[in-house]
UniProtKB/TrEMBL annotation:
Residues in Major facilitator superfamily (MFS) profile domain copies: 47-462
Membrane topology, as annotated: Multi-pass membrane protein
PANTHER family per UniProt: PERMEASE-RELATED (PTHR43791), TRANSPORTER, PUTATIVE (AFU_ORTHOLOGUE AFUA_6G08340)-RELATED (PTHR43791:SF36)
Transmembrane segments: 47-70, 82-101, 113-132, 138-161, 173-194, 206-228, 276-295, 315-335, 342-363, 369-391, 403-424, 430-453
Protein name: Major facilitator superfamily (MFS) profile domain-containing protein
Main location: membrane
Domain of life: Eukaryota
Gene3D superfamilies documented for this protein: MFS general substrate transporter like domains
Subcellular location(s) of the protein: Membrane
Length: 492
């Protein structure tokens, strides 16, 4: 339902007539609410499914190394000791370094051209990885996958954050991030199916995984080039009337909307990085990603340590991700409905910690497998919430672009950590790796409490009128205040 601000901006003239009676006003409001839902659906269908597809393939191509590992990868490329861990780790180095620069590019180039180019680049890199003859060849392919994938996730988050009001954002983020779970399901199924082609035409199962999944991404890149929309101010798929109304609607939620059209630059990024909320976003997403990447990349390997076959281990990763995807979307819808974030984040962390303790402390395969369910849906509840919550707390293209890119960059450090704390000699309990995941989730809990406490305190200051002196500034200066404006309220 559109709120009163939505309705007032949609047809100001009708509401402002003094001779209109209450029944007529109610009729106008009802029609406007229907129109708001219609335009939102139009935006949702144009934006979210395509981004969901692209990020599904992004995540699939990133973690398929875990499925490949159980189909003769080590033997064919003569990987020993930490070689596999290094192959997993090297992806994250260019990924971390290039995320903020990539968001500066997407702010200047049509998103469809930039994201389409990135998708084509990493799709080809994955495909060529299937031809690797030694560790050096696979390392090179993984570096290029990291270079091209670096801009995809923060760019998509940046685009989504620009299209929706704050109370509509988390559910859209969850639908987008359910890509992780879709990819997790597909990864297990495709890993089992494509890996079973082992030996066909002289290629091992791991090569077929890379060939087919990389080719799928190249095809999706064409869809991005053709259909991905731009930012709201530059969109063409809405009618002029719909576009004008929608920009007014966003303006009601974001007093800084006009200055948002300024392009990101290094000075703006550096100023944004001084904001404690931006820095907290990095801590929160890092705390999520250590566990998320550990589960995605090493779950098939851990399952084989139960004595299960490669085929069974790949297949049994699928239902875990399916359940976590469904739960994460339902919780996100609930969070948007009640406009609360912190309590859901804390619940997700605690559930995930409980699941990890099951995996680490129990010895029976069935109980440990049950632990993977709790660990997965707990952490995937948190993933869209923490990134969306941090976007909720800032205004302006520059700061939003910095938040998404910085948070995701920090998250990839979690990928590096996960790559080195699960060596094969820790099998079957993997105590150091799982303990590391639990420790970082504890850090995430502290960051959630910190964000909730200080934002709640600041909201109370504004409600008490202690920031009203900022209203004496000129209109231009007030517009530059962003989330410091006394009318702005932080999400809790």
């Amino acid at each position: 339902m559109a709120n009163d601000n939505d309705i007032r901006t949609f047809d100001d003239a009708a509401v402002e007539k003094q001779d209109i009676d209450h029944a007529e006003i109610a009729s106008v409001f009802e029609e406007d609410a229907f129109e708001a839902r219609r335009v939102l659906r139009k935006i949702d269908f144009r934006l979210i499914p395509l981004l969901l597809l692209l990020y599904t393939l992004t995540f699939l191509d990133r973690v398929n190394i875990g499925n490949a590992a159980v189909w003769n990868l080590d033997q064919d490329l003569h990987l020993k000791g930490y070689d596999y861990n290094i192959v997993v780790l090297v992806f994250y180095i260019p990924y971390i370094l290039l995320e903020i620069p990539s968001n500066m590019v997407i702010n200047r180039v049509q998103p469809r051209y930039w994201i389409g180019f990135l998708a084509l680049g990493w799709g080809m890199s994955v495909t060529f990885a299937g031809f690797a003859k030694n560790m050096g060849g696979l390392l090179t392919a993984r570096v290029f996958i990291g270079i091209f994938e670096a801009g995809m996730f923060p760019g998509c988050l940046f685009l989504i954050g620009s299209w929706y009001r704050r109370e509509e954002l988390i559910s859209r983020m969850a639908w987008f991030m359910v890509s992780n779970d879709v990819a997790g399901v597909l990864s297990g199924l495709l890993g089992a199916g494509l890996g079973s082609l082992n030996g066909k035409d002289g290629y091992s199962g791991w090569s077929w995984i890379f060939f087919v999944e990389g080719g799928m991404t190249c095809c999706a890149a064409v869809l991005a080039l053709l259909f991905l929309p731009s930012f709201p101010e530059e969109s063409t798929f809405l009618t002029p009337e719909e576009k004008a109304w929608y920009l007014r609607r966003l303006k009601c939620d974001d007093n800084n909307r006009e200055s948002e059209q300024k392009k990101m630059d290094f000075r703006g990024v550096l100023l944004s990085l001084r904001d404690w909320k931006v820095l907290t976003s990095g801590v929160l997403y890092l705390s999520v990603c250590v566990t998320a990447y550990s589960l995605s990349v090493f779950q098939p390997v851990v399952l084989t340590s139960f004595g299960w076959s490669s085929l069974k281990s790949n297949l049994l990763t699928a239902p875990v991700r399916a359940v976590s995807g469904i739960i994460s979307v339902l919780v996100a819808l609930w969070s948007d409905k009640v406009k609360k974030r912190a309590v859901f984040c804390l619940t997700g962390y605690l559930i995930s910690i409980m699941g990890l303790l099951f995996v680490m402390l129990f010895h029976k395969g069935n109980l440990r497998y049950m632990g993977f369910y709790f660990a997965s849906f707990g952490i995937y509840i948190c993933q869209p919430l923490v990134i969306g919550w941090c976007v909720n707390q800032v205004l302006g293209y520059t700061k939003r672009g910095t938040v998404t890119a910085f948070a995701v960059s920090c998250g990839q450090i979690g990928g590096i950590i996960s790559a080195v704390v699960f060596p094969s000699n820790n099998s079957p309990q993997y105590v150091p790796g799982i303990s590391t995941c639990i420790g970082f989730q504890g850090l995430g809990i502290l960051a959630v409490i910190n964000m909730w406490y200080w934002c709640r305190w600041e909201n109370k200051q504004r409600e008490a009128g202690k920031r009203d002196h900022l209203r004496t500034l000129s209109a231009e200066e007030q517009e530059k205040l962003g989330e410091l404006h006394p009318d702005f309220r932080y999400m809790l």
